[in-house]
């Protein structure tokens, strides 16, 4: 039986009736609980009834997966937050609960723009006709602005209509009805989300609201009369003035110009702006969704993985755009791109252990602070453990001698020290670094006289470890490209021109460039997927090459849909052609963080994006290649896994050719300028002699490779300079 999933939310709410204030833009929710609930499909027709009672969902606790428990959600107006957490902890679920206003304690007047990375691309063109253009889609996506414009135009036309004096009455009835429906939607949601006494009151309000909606619907069908003409006309003038004032504040008349600027900044040229949405590829569709979110007038802007499918020019433009938006707009970003998060966000939210923790600073500052605090607490705990051990020995000695000799002083001393062990061991300083005082630092009831020393665990994904490259037997270049050129057909221009590249064992080669410049084409030539039109590509006679395509995860997802029974283990066994045993396959998958029942019992159709990346690496590494060619490997990973992957790649003893827009990955793996946690293990490389450790970053531009002498910094500065010509 197929189960549908929904989000169940509850929180602590104030007893006081706080009216919505347009000036309040903060989100401050305590006691937040969020769960993903699986419910069986409905079969009876009565369950499809749209009555209010049927909309109050009954959840099965046994089928609920808890995301947050008694957490605090605090988003201050104008602040930019980076939300981090491991894959599967519920970051996207939390963002969806905020965007859909499922949290009862959240103000409902907030305008929220949301880029959802989990949206189905098949439903992208859900606004306008099937031939809606890119520009029209962006303009139509701001429903709030379009609603204001529609009401303004209707009121203006009715007030100026000299042929039908009662048209104002009809328009006012329609506007009141539309606003009543919005209020009904909110009341219905509260009746569904609230429980207990609040739920009972909410359901009473829902019954009363249903009556109002019914009366309003009947009034729409009734013929208008002149009894309320003067009152409706005055109300129409007042509403029209308020609408025009709000539209002026939103700069609604400049929306098309703003939409064109945003689309241009995200890489849309004039031809693509005019193209129908249905003609866009998946990557361009996601850019379109990002443009729609940026253009919307919002109090809260939520972006879930906005840098996916963007090149570095687009990422830098997005950084500058977010920095330039209204200072009252709250921004929440989830991204695996560490450099982007550090540049944009001034505060960090950590989703861990079903709780939300806050840090005032960037992601790098948080990690540095976390490491320093953890090191301090480890030293404090180690010193105190030694003190406790010494005191316990002293207590035992005093007890033994006191009982033996009848020395009451020794017994009292042992009792006093035991009391100190039981009640007064723990933190000796408070959170501010001052002397700990019980009355100030631990008010109220507690089970100890001091706070326990809790050393926080590292918030990192499972450590990744790659098997070492197989023995090469004799030296020589692994891959050599000489004057290689490529074009797709005789009628098209050359994509690549006179490419020269030599890669030896142990080399680190990074290739950067704008989208569409030919990076993936170059990798396909190196791996033999395509052949050059001119030039020669030679390879070592014993070369083993592993290739991770930028579409590797999508290919695995398609395979999972086609064959629902295939698992990570069965796929790797099939890929190895019997050369690996089941135990060896399990070992490789375990090294990459896929272990237990997930290996053999979970179909790949149900694996997360991060798990599919790990499986794709297993399919690359099983043969222990001498060189790995990697094309955009970080797209489906959280930043914890990017860290682990970077460390594993940095420790890999084979050669690497990496195409990536991730600045941290390139600097860590290719340039070696960012320190990591990878430790050299000489035992893993006894069978391999590394002949070269050349580190080079190339920029592919106009079909040719250019060495970046200053590495990623040089390319980043070039993109920043180029970005200055694109208006925000």
Automatic annotation (TrEMBL):
Record's keyword annotation contains ATP-binding: yes
PROSITE patterns for this protein: ABC_TRANSPORTER_1, ABC_TRANSPORTER_2
Domain of life: Eukaryota
GO molecular function, one term: ATP binding
Domain spans labelled ABC transporter: 51-378, 479-727
Protein name: ABC transporter domain-containing protein
Alphabetized UniProt keyword annotations: ATP-binding, Nucleotide-binding, Repeat
């Amino acid at each position: 039986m197929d189960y549908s999933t929904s989000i169940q939310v509850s929180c602590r709410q104030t007893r006081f009736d706080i009216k919505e204030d347009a000036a309040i833009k903060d989100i401050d929710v305590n006691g937040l609980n969020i769960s993903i609930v699986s419910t069986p499909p409905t079969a009876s027709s009565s369950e499809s009834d749209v009555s209010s009672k049927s909309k109050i969902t009954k959840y099965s606790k046994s089928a609920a997966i808890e995301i947050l428990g008694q957490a605090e959600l605090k988003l201050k107006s104008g602040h930019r937050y980076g939300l981090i957490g491991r894959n599967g902890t519920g970051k996207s679920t939390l963002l969806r609960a905020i965007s859909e206003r499922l949290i009862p304690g959240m103000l409902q007047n907030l305008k929220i723009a949301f880029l959802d990375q989990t949206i189905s691309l098949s439903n992208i063109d859900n606004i306008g006709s099937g031939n809606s253009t890119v520009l029209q889609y962006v303009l139509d996506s701001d429903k709030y602005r379009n609603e204001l414009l529609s009401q303004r135009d209707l009121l203006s036309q009715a007030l100026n209509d000299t042929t039908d004096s009662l048209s104002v009455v009809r328009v006012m009835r329609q506007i009141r009805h539309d606003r009543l429906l919005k209020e009904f939607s909110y009341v219905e949601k509260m009746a569904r989300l609230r429980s207990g006494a609040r739920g009972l009151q909410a359901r009473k309000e829902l019954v009363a609201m249903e009556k109002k909606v019914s009366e309003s619907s009947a009034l729409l069908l009734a013929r208008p009369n002149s009894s309320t003409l003067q009152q409706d006309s005055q109300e129409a003038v007042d509403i029209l003035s308020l609408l025009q004032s709000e539209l002026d504040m939103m700069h609604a008349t400049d929306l098309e110009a703003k939409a064109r600027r945003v689309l241009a900044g995200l890489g849309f040229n004039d031809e693509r702006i005019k193209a129908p949405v249905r003609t866009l590829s998946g990557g361009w569709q996601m850019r379109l969704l990002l443009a729609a979110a940026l253009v919307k007038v919002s109090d809260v802007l939520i972006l879930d993985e906005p840098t996916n499918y963007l090149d570095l020019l687009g990422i830098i433009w997005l950084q500058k755009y977010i920095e330039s938006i209204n200072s009252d707009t709250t921004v929440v970003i989830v991204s695996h791109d560490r450099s982007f998060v550090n540049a944009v966000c001034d505060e960090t939210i950590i989703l861990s252990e079903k709780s939300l923790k806050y840090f005032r600073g960037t992601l790098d500052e948080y990690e540095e602070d976390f490491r320093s605090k953890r090191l301090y607490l480890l030293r404090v705990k180690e010193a105190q453990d030694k003190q406790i051990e010494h005191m316990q020995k002293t207590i035992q000695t005093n007890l033994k001698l006191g009982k033996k000799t009848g020395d009451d002083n020794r017994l009292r001393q042992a009792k006093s020290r035991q009391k100190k062990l039981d009640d007064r061991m723990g933190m000796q300083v408070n959170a501010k670094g001052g002397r700990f005082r019980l009355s100030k630092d631990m008010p109220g009831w507690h089970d100890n006289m001091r706070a326990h020393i809790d050393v926080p665990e590292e918030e990192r994904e499972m450590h990744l470890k790659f098997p070492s490259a197989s023995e090469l037997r004799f030296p020589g270049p692994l891959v050599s490209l000489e004057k290689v050129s490529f074009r797709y057909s005789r009628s098209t221009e050359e994509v690549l021109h006179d490419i020269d590249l030599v890669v030896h064992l142990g080399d680190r080669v990074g290739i950067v460039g704008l989208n569409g410049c030919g990076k993936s084409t170059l990798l396909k030539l190196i791996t033999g997927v395509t052949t050059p039109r001119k030039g020669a590509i030679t390879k070592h006679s014993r070369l083993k090459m592993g290739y991770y395509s930028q579409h590797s995860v999508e290919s695995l997802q398609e395979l999972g849909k086609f064959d629902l029974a295939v698992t990570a283990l069965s796929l790797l066994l099939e890929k190895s052609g019997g050369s690996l045993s089941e135990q060896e396959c399990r070992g490789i998958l375990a090294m990459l963080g896929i272990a237990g029942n997930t290996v053999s019992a979970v179909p790949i159709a149900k694996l997360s994006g991060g798990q599919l990346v790990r499986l794709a690496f297993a399919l690359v590494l099983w043969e222990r290649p001498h060189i790995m060619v990697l094309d955009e490997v970080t797209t489906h990973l959280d930043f914890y896994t990017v860290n682990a992957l970077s460390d594993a790649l940095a420790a890999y003893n084979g050669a690497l050719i990496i195409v990536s827009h991730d600045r941290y990955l390139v600097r860590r793996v290719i340039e070696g300028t960012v320190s990591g946690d990878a430790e050299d293990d000489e035992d893993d490389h006894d069978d391999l002699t590394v002949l070269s450790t050349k580190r080079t970053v190339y920029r592919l531009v106009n079909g040719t490779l250019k060495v970046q002498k200053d590495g990623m910094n040089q390319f980043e500065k070039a993109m920043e300079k180029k970005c200055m010509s694109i208006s925000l």
